[in-house]
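If you are new to this repository, start here. Below is one unmodified record pulled from the training split, so you can see the exact layout before writing a loader.
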Amino acid sequence: MDDALVGAVVERLGLRPLKAEAEALLLAACMGQNELERALGGEVLARPVPPDNQGRRPELAYLESLEVGGFRGIGPRTRLPLSPGPGFTLVVGRNGSGKSSFAEALEVLLTGEVRRWAERAVVWHEGWRNLHHSPPSIHLTLAVQGAGRATAELRWADGQDLGDPATVVQVAGEKRSGLDRLGWGEAIKAFRPFLSHSELEALLGRPSELYDLLAAVLGLDDLAATAERLRVAVRAAETPLSDVKKALGPLLGRLRQIDDERAAACELVLNGRTWDIDAAERVATGAQPLGPGGPREELRRIGELRAPALEDVVLTIAALRDAASRLETVTGTDSGRALKLADLLDAALLYHREHGDGDCPVCGRQEALNPAWQRETEQAIARLRAEAAVADDARQSARRALLSSNGLLLPEPQSLQTDVVDGTSKARSIWRTWLRAPIADDAEALRSRADHFEEHISALADAVEKTGVGAGRRQVDFHVTVDGTEGAALSVMSQGEVNALALSVFLPRVTMPASPFGFLIIDDPVQAMDPAKVEGLARVLSDTAMERQVIVFTHDDRLPEAVRRLGLAATILEVTRRPGSVVEVRRALDPPARAIEDARAIAADRGVPDDIGRRVVGGLCRMALESAFAEAYRRTRLSAGDEHHVVEDRLLASSTSLTARAALALFGDAERGGEVLTKLNGWGGRWAGDTYRACNKGAHGV
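And here is the target side for that same chain:
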């Protein structure tokens, strides 16, 4: 464990001390597996004393440029220019443009891996070489305070795997060396400056997986490793206990056969989930036997109290709602009727195959059985059997979800039937409320049962936790409120809110004063965020960029649009990918200017046929106008205090025609399209209206 985390553990122990033996084992586990084994063996280890780093600030490193070639989506070597020092840089580009390849290349260069590939199929590991260019290479130029300019480089020869070569570092005025020259070995774990979109999305996993992910996002891998060492040690210590449990059964059997009150008393205190060894010893040596129950036994039962696992509840809620939706889909169908009718038509087809065309043997209609009837009947059978299968599958899904949800309705524990500790009566009341889940036999009831579990799981888990649940589970607890009402975070948060949550725990850690990284890299944080959160994200990143070099990769136009509209200082670089994996990086224009520039390029390209060129140029010009009108409307209305969702809904409603969009921007009313040309001509003559009409018609090839 790095010194910073050891110091945090020692500080916490000073505030909340443990028993001497427990504290010694915890600190030994922090130091490593060997130290833990020595402590378990009875050796007294010296208490770790972290070096005093107070007042020291590491020399920060900033990124000056990144050149990548032959790696992932980038073919010929391409340079991503950056401004070393605090500042906000947006790297934008469509999916597949190669922008994420820059972020992944930097991660490989500094860590030797790409974390998001770890859970992917093997093809992600094998497909890191670009198909159009070789050999792969990554070259980074840094500005390191106190050392000057430095470079870090990776080059691969043909046949080398991703992790074969080592990063070569060259500091100005020094000999070439390895990555350890930068002194980032421990810091890259504790203050990892990369956050990918896959890590953001993964926060919706199981609570134990969420714990592991946040430990990684926060750079707390060493704490997770320490906890795992302690868990392994506990399991090893429980093995002798397991052997005792196996031998206890025959012993209890012998005690029951003895007609002696001491045997009966020993059997009583040893026959249960917890044992009172002290009481059994007193009975065996002639002391006064204990009667049934007693505070000590109740306390032990309280200590073993468990609520249904949150991860199981979340999965069950999802299963109930999915089953309800599937039942609603087949509402009004009758799988039994469909199945019987399909069987009847099958018999009719069999009759037709055996006797050929002719009259219907049931109703007597002449020439009813013919090739056309055969085709229609075969289609009807297929449809009926599909209907029956879907309905039956929906009902089976509902039954499975219901049975699974019954497993959450554990009987009220005996340990809650006494008030031996504070909070027991409250936990008992909440547990009984939990057991009053609606009986489910249709879609509406399934949804009600899911709502019941979602509404009460937080209160139940909290009550049980406060009453006496044991520690040791790997989970993360986020307290959220929805319109003033407390709720379980994972069950009520959207994906966009989860992304914001991940950023809220990533940014404070990576910007700590102890971090040597003057830069941080975030890949695609905007997906699934609503407009209000995008604007908030832009402000947060801009504030962070006052002290750190913030580099964000995104294919979503909303973040750069928010940056421009809010007037935030930022450099926007646009990445485009041409045939043959040729990637270009240029300073981005705003959307209207970009569309006009593309239109000029098409118009100047003599290789484009005239009829196609007119249509494409007209479409690009119309796109420029649509973007300009949309930006003008957003800027005006948001500055006036309108809510984001209202503005976006109005823009969406006006997307049916250019005239509606223009009227919305010019007058705030999409219905005033008849006044658009007059307004435009009033700005400088008929040329404005004529240009507008040409752009509108040109998009349709007129």
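Two things worth knowing about this chain: The mean pLDDT is 79. Residues 589-702 form one domain.
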